[in-house]
Amino acid sequence: MSGPIVSGKDPRFEKTLYKHVGQPNAWTLGYYLDHGGYQAIRKAIQQGQDWVIEEVKKSGLRGRGGAGFPTGLKWSFMPKNTGKQHYIVCNADESEPGSFKDRYLMEDDPHQLIEGMLIAGVGIQASKGYIYIRGEYRRAYDRLTSAIQEAYAAGYLGQNIMGTGFSFDLYVHRGAGAYICGEETALMNSLEGLRANPRMKPPFPAQAGLWGMPTTINNVESLCSVVHITLRGADWFASMGTEKSKGHKLFQVSGPFKRPGVYELPLGTTFRELLFDWAGGPTEPIQAIIPGGSSCPPLPWTDEILDTPMDYESISAKGSLLGTGGVIGIPASMSMVDAMWNVTRFYGHESCGKCTPCREGVSGWMVGLFEKIGTGQGQKGDVELLESLLDQIEGRSFCALADAACWPVRGSLKHFRHQFVDAVENGKPVERFGSRWG
Amino acid sequence: MGFFDDKQDWLRGVFAQYPDTPQGRRAALMPMLRRVQQDEGWISPERQEEIAQILGTTATEVAGVMSFYSYYQALPTGKYHLQVCATLSCAIGGADELWDELVQELGILRGDVTPDGLFSIQKVECLGSCHTAPVVQVNDEPYVECVTKARLHALLQGLREGKRLEEIVLPGKVGHEVHVRGEEVGV
Amino acid sequence: MDRMVRVTVNDRTVEVPGGTSVMDAIFHAGYDVPLFCAEKHLSPIGACRMCLVKTGSPRKGPDGQFILENGQPKIFWMPKLSAACITAVSDGMVIDTLSDEVKHAQSGMVELTLFNHPLDCPTCDKGGACELQDRSYEYGLVEKFYQPDPMELPLYTRFEMTRRHVDKHHTLSPFIVLDRERCIHCKRCVRYFEEIPGDEVLDFIERGVHTFINSEDDGLPSNFTGNIVDICPVGALLDQTARFRARNWEYDSTETTSMDDACGAAITVDARSGLLERIRAAERREVNEVWISDAARFGHQWVNENRVCTPLVRRDGKLVEATWDEALKAIRQGLDGVAPADVGVYLAGNSTLEEGLAALELTAALGTAHRDFQGRTAYPTTGFAPASFEELLDAEFVLVLGEPTEEAPTLHLRLSEYIRGLKPAAKLNHGTPFADLNIKERMPRLNHKLALFSAYPTPTARWAGASAVHAPGAEAALLAALLGEAEAPAGLGEPLAWVKARLAASQRVVLVLGAGVLNQPEAAIKARQLAERSGARVMCMTPAANARGLEALGLFPGKGGAGWTEAGPRAVYYAYLPTEAQLKAAAFRILHLTHRHPLAEKYADVVLPNQTAYEKRGHTLNLEGRVLPLEPAGINNGEADGAVAALGLLAEALGVKTPVRLVRQATRLLVEKHKLPAALERWLPKSTGWTATEADATTGTLYLRPTMWRREQRVGAVARVVEIKLEMSPATARSQGLADGYLVELALPEGVERLEVKTVAGLPDGVMYVPALGAWAGRRVEAKILVGGEA
Question: Is the pTM above the cut of 0.90?
Fold first, then answer.
């Protein structure tokens, strides 16, 4: 085979990020060193900051937290030689419904993340790092803290790492149940012990972030990817994926499939390959998939969609987003109104309340309207009202949370409008799903 | 006696993680709240006041932060605080029915504690284990995954018997090891 | 000054300093943009999303030249609308506030803001002065977007669900009530407390649509709570003292100067039907910006009650109502046989310059040395070169000896600005910016710029790089140590060494002196030496509001004259209530009072009806030496008149001629003879040459600690807030045989008070504290406990 690697079945494709996930004792330093650990940081320190940034830029790695902003470019925004304390913060507040990839990276391969943080530290001249981990990830927290202790004891963290003169301190900060902390400026507020309202930009974190110091915030998967980019080179990474979406990615499958879970695949792999070849296909009829975590507009379960490559551009062209790569299958037996009611309630619950469109629009009105329609109280015109409400909220909120709440509803109205109209016209509560639980 | 009086070493360790400035000191707020929550099951107004004193801020500020995050409880909870994920994938997996079962079995709602002091329940949003839906978290422990009716009752039974979470044997093979081996899990 | 940039707002091109917000550029250009969360002097946060506008900028191509379109730089519009308050202008920026896209967004935001807002405007105190009402009318009418038939009734919101029902009457303090249903979450109040006074006593609780504001700190412990009522854009935070008193359009509003302290904050006095109902802050950029203390705002309920409305003369041992003519006759009779040099004239500390001049001219004509004003400090404040607030902001180091929150509340708020490193706000066409991007939430406090020493714990100390609570009277020793004349008092070695180093390293220094220093000539002289040595300018927090002005005119005792704390002259005129001993000592007493009082009933021979400071016309001088105007509010005070008229009467009774008979005459004389400049200018006449005439006022074990409240204000809500207790350290209490809760009767200069004992850990031992509540602030007297026992 030649050309870019866009399938997990391509013999040239090799699992890297998740290679050791699930292996006994993969989280220990001994295991990590036995499998070539802490070689990348050695190389990064030898090659220096500019090389690291250039290599990450060249690799085409885009932020794996959902927004897809080029990681190398983000690092290059950091000022150099300011004499100030720079911080690298790992966003491990994985909270997007449908996403659970970072959890296993931290549970089973914490040293990989530590090494990624170290490399980022070289890349942005940071001597301190924080891993902001969502509070519920207890096992990941335990494994990370013990890995950090091991790393300190073995000289991979602390002063003068491996005798290179590079020093780095790493701390874990636990969240306490707030989706908004995934937004990088809200995360910084939370880390500082404040209510997690997003901050205004500018100043961007690279100018004035954590405690006013230059700061870069990266997702767990992005930082782990950097380890392999450093070790194997940007060209290796760029050999996978499509022209604008390079590399590999952790895709997650949840919903009624035979083998839901996390799958490491090159970008550009089709939904069909993920859902049928890897996840074993659905266990019951599916009507829609949410391609990248609950904030992405659902797409109908059609051949056209199933054959769409999973990369930033192709999914965009279909009217949705790659997001975090968390694919949720919505069964045909579940009303889309019910599914969107659930998603809207989630965003309403997680709205921080800072700005009007999100607080009143999403958390108040949209949730109220779904409750009205969902409980059979819907009136003629409510679907149009919902649509006009989306116009009023989308693009006008302070941060992207309100947008994230609007997109799935808008996508549902585009493809499944009749279900909403039916729900209003029937005047009956939507059937509750999950009656087969037992 | 104050909660943190005999935890000065722990407190120093927490402060050491953050810059030695008034703003840096403030970052200890969430770890301190978590510590009280873990040890006492809720964070009473007295504890909030104590934290405010230690950090040099006001009780209002502490309450503002505390109420923002869903983990911290302003009311006492049971010995086992059961948090049921209710977001989409878990809802597809039957989270609503699981919740109803729990309400019926324990005879309590959110904010209540069973008369024996053992259980309290709370619906929470996505716990990040969508492939093993539905998911329940007991206190601050690792998740209980793929919670079928049988597994739920085994869990409650085990907890009632005073077993530690990891000692409780639940029917069916699920969770971490299954995901890795690629066996069937989920709905 | 930042570089100027050119921006185009709709059809107008204007120049504004770089870094200006789009919002202020729009206002500067004369266009409007709706807003709820932005507020003068507060950080812009972009939360309410009302100010969404369309912005675009030219871009440069790879060749460094602007990309052109039809020969003009091409405008690249932002894909989304921008919140004008948190977007900075850039050169060549184009701002559109009038297009359908913008109007649609703004009207949509009005609808969302109204989503949970109750429709109880008819019973809301904010009605008629409500920003939400105004903005709904101006920007909320959305027929174009939601109303198919233009003949239908106007549609502001389509919402027909049940609104949020939460606590509608949540009492935050005796002064402030919160209606949580009305709150639109603009966060002005929460930001205000963190940024302006620095008392974080109000915060959001919960999140999302459930967010509400609350306090866990009982009764909002801060001296500056009332400002949140002014800045609340809706009727969520309301003034309890003015609750349901009038509709906003019924008030007779007068802008004048607060005489509650020496800062001279601008206030708006709202009266209705001759009663003073409400006081709000007015804007005075140079002084208080838009903030005032709670004493200046809420301490007005006493004004309407128990007023003296006509002259009273004593007949058959009783005070009876009389005409001014009858009062004149009674005075003439009473003064018969009294030598002019044996007449004493004593003004209140909040008298106007006009009144001061009248007193001075009269006493000069009489040839009496007995003249003074209440609250004059033992050492003259005119002995110091005053700093302006602008100079304060520009200082490198500020040393405070005293308690700004109590002695000069506005100064505390300006120190808050100073400690955050802010400079005076820019002045644009519309005045102060509404969204000053230099101000941010939770700015670090620059502690190295401030040191504070006080005789009682004070909130301002939390910003100081070095601070300590010392025993009252220790100021002289402390200053001696700073001058290098003595060793530092015990326990102060380290902070004083730090201050010395900072003083030595700083160019522009400001010294802030409280009444504790000014009443102790030894300390005050040392402070003056320190100021001269470090080139510091000085702000004197005098107990008398117009101390600097009255002193500048020369209103202090002449040689051999009795000061305001002493008894002396045979016949006296007091424009305030003196001590019983002073009344007893005189043979003929004219009291010029606003209110009736038992002491007046007992001793006064003639009572003349006086005006409160809210009713006077004239001028005052604040601690900067700034001339500030007083305007009379529409308060019904009967036949009351000020000291100019009363002293005129006295002159007539004594048969002397003075050049001052009317306030306007006095003003003219001040301008012509004393070169008084126009309002808001500073008047810095040469020092009068007077130095300390009084013995050291600071001996004794009872310290009359300064408070912003005055005795007469303690009625209504104020009485519920102002706690007056005899405070001391636990050790002092033990040595006195006292304990918490004991009730004691204490002889104070102004009479006997029955007080509860309260022990406060951390207070210096061997001294007791009682709130001064007025002119005696910062002095020490012997503690005379008359009776005491367990409560």
Answer: yes
